[in-house]
Amino acid sequence: MIYPVVMNIITSFTEWKGYGPWKWIGLANYKTMVADGQFWTSILNTGLMVLYIPLSTVVTLLIAAFLREGIGGWKVYRAILYIPNLLGYVLMGVIFSIYLRDDGALNMAIKRITGSAIHFLITPILAINVVGFLLVVFLHLGFGLIYFLAAMNGIDKSIYEAALIDGASFRRTLFEITIPSVRFAVEFWVVFNFIEVFARMFSFIHTLTQGGPGYSTFTLEYGIFIQGFSKFKVGYSSAWSVVLFLFCAIISVAQIRLMQRRDE
Amino acid sequence: MKKVSPFGPIARLLVQAFMILIVVASVLPLYNVISASLKSLDEYPTNPILLPQTPTLDNYQYAAFSGHLLRFTVNSLVYVPIGVVLYVVVCVLAGYAFGKMRFALRRPLFLIVLFMSIFPQLLLAMQVSKLISLMRLTNTGLGVILSWVAYFAPFGTYIMTTYFTDMPYELVEAARIDGASQVRILMSIMAPLALPMVATIAIIGFQSMWSELPFSMLILQNEALRTVTVGIAVLRGEYGLRVPILSAALVIAMIVPLLIFLLFQRYITLGVTAGAVKG
Question: d(Cα B52, Cα B38) in Å, to the nearest integer?
Answer without folding.
Answer: 6
